[in-house]
Design goal:
The protein contains seven helices and 14 strands. The chain is 24% helix and 24% strand.
Amino acid sequence: MPELPEELVLPADLVPAEPPNPPVTPKDAATVMLVRDQDGLEVFLLRRVVGMAFAGGMTVFPGGGVDRRDADASVAWHGPDPAWWAARFGCDEALARALVCAAVRETFEESGVLLAGPDGDSVVADTRPFHDARQELVERKYSFAGFLADHGLVLRADLLRPWANWVTPAEEPRRYDTRFFLAAMPEGQHADGATTEAEDVAWRRPADALDDWRSGARGLLPPTWMALAELSERDSVAAAMAAPRTVDKIIPKVVRTGTTLRVILPDDPRYPTAAAHLDARPGDALDLL
């Protein structure tokens, strides 16, 4: 795992002065790193609208929270079964099914890319006929299982790969236990980013996206920075999709130096002694579990 740079600091308002007590239970979520080969590996990125309650203004991958209906066992499914995904993400099969469905649904809602097809050997080539259904999914008028059934589609779980698992700090009023997936852009489809949650979208080589962050052009939170750094080590979609991954739950902590907040990970020597309160003296650590 690459080392987080010291200059990767968190927004000053990320940790509220009076955090919830007890901490909010994290909501299960899924995010998808959608990649393609074009002058090297590129990944699809969205810049969230400034002012949004969570990660406003930050550059992220498509994704969002699990809907309770994502666990519907009637979903037509092709690829590794929920038991396989449960073993990779360390959860039960019902949640694993919901996470995979949420990953595919959120990718469709936020990018217009649909990882599904008429059968297990094909993928939809043109998603424009599903424009209205896409909006109904966004508005939660329609379940993803219902959408697939009505259009005779099969969820292609085999097009996804498990990548990582990050948990939001305990002090935040909105918390997520997010599983990261990797998926190749289906041939013939177009990622449009037509979502009200994003002010702009772009395909970027991971190294270029990191350069954008260094220049101040884009803001990144640690999980996104780490994923981009890891993707930058792969020179093609095939190499990224074939990369062996062991997914461990990453629960960061934060150290405060004056008014600056930086994330530290479990392998950092400061991690075990991070302070468990917000009124720490300058230089003390804040426990963001």
